[in-house]
Amino acid sequence: MEHSSAPKDPLDSRRSQMPGVLSSAPARDFYANLPDGRAVDIITLANERMQVRFLTLGGIIVSVHTADRDGHVDDITLGYDSLDDYLRDGNFFGALIGRYANRIANGQFTLGGTTYTLALNHAPNHLHGGPGGFHGALWRAETFSDESGVGAVLTHVSPDGDEGYPGNLRARVTYTLTPNDELIFDYSATTDAPTPVNLTQHSYWNLAGHDRGNILGHELTLNASHYTPVDETLIPTGEMASVDDTPFDFRKSTTIGAGVEAVGGYDHNFVLDAGSFAARLYEPTSGRVLEIFTTEPGIQVYSGNGLGEHVVGKQWRVYGQYGGIALEAQHFPDSPNQPSFPSTILEPGQEFRSQTTYKFSTRAHDRHD
Hints:
Layout: E1 27-33, E2 39-46, E3 50-55, E4 61-67, E5 73-75, H1 83-88, E6 95-97, E7 103-104, E8 108-111, E9 114-117, E10 126-127, E11 140-146, E12 149-158, E13 169-177, E14 182-191, E15 195-196, E16 200-202, E17 204-205, E18 219-222, E19 226-228, E20 241-242, E21 254-255, E22 267-271, E23 277-282, E24 288-294, E25 298-302, E26 325-330, E27 345-346, E28 352-362
């Protein structure tokens, strides 16, 4: 996979600003106990320029520390300070999402002549695998350090009937932090019965810093000439509409705030054009850049419309509306009920495989794409 080059900020004289100890090997520590007594661990991945910390609960990324163009280190992802907050979270901060990312209309789909009924946790629809989805599972984790970088292999078995889905599904997700400041997510899954599978990562980004206000000044570029319009419950109509002359046209770098009010906040799936490049997010004041490359056919852009004064995050910071943006590489919403969309049905004997890469860098001087 080819990535565009970006200037590096080595932090050679500023490493003491980075929280934790920079190490070539992952660190694993106890975080907290679940109400049933099971232990949740926190895993730290670090290279010379950035640090990523995540939980074995839901694969939740709790922090990503990177330097801005001047070397100042900030945490650029939204989250909480305690396990209790994550257990109560309705925003899916930082979590792995499955079995099915995004929405399924009316919590139902038919497969092989059988209709399956799912939880309506975002009435009238099913959202992100249901209340007991992968975001709340305690994943097994094995850390590694090799020539590819440092990381962990997370595994989870979702039993037949879990949240209403058929088949025993074995899921495996590998988190890798490379020496080139890439955070790579490799997904795979197998099943013993046909079942929908759509996995993604649901971190919210504010490249100025998690506590630095809204993301309306961030500039977004998408490799997408079409999007899937939705009805009033955010279920796709089945159309793949052109972004021409609409607030959904991000083919050239555009501030998120330019069209957010016109669309009532972004929570839409974009149909990715050919090639692995999916998105670029740029924050002008810090110079931070996040590029996303993926094998997935779509990317859901969620501008944090549901955040507000009721959401108190890390360090008691209130995450107001538009306080972070989620860029979720995935298949399309409601695909099990939309025959014109790419299929998400995994059959026995097949292996679901997907890869998404987040590439972090800084831009030395303000410029436009």
